[in-house]
Amino acid sequence: MPARADFGGGIMGFSGKWVCALVVATVAGLTVTACSKDPPSDPVLSRIRSKGELVVLTRNAPTTYYEGTDGLAGMEYDMAEAFGKYLGVKVHFELRDSVAGILDSLAKGEGDLAAAGLTHTIGRAGKFRFGPTYQQVRQQVVCRRGGPRPKSVADLVGLRLTVAGDSSYVERLKSLKAKYPKLHWKTTTDDDTEELMEQVWKRKIDCTVADSNIVAINRRYYPALVVAFDLAPPQPLAWAFPDNAVALQKKVREWFRHFHKDGRLDALKQRYYGYVKIFDYVDTRAYVRRIKHVLPRYEKVFKRAAKRNGFNWTLLAAQSYQESHWNPRARSPTGVRGMMMLTRPTAKALGLRNRLNPVKSIQAGARYLARLRGRVPDSCAQPVRTWVALAGYTLGMAHVLDARVLARKLGKDPDRWGDLAQVLPLLSEKRYYHHLDHGYARGREAVRYVNRVRYYQDILRRKVDGSG
Question: 378 pLDDT band (50/70/90 cuts)?
Answer without folding.
Answer: very high
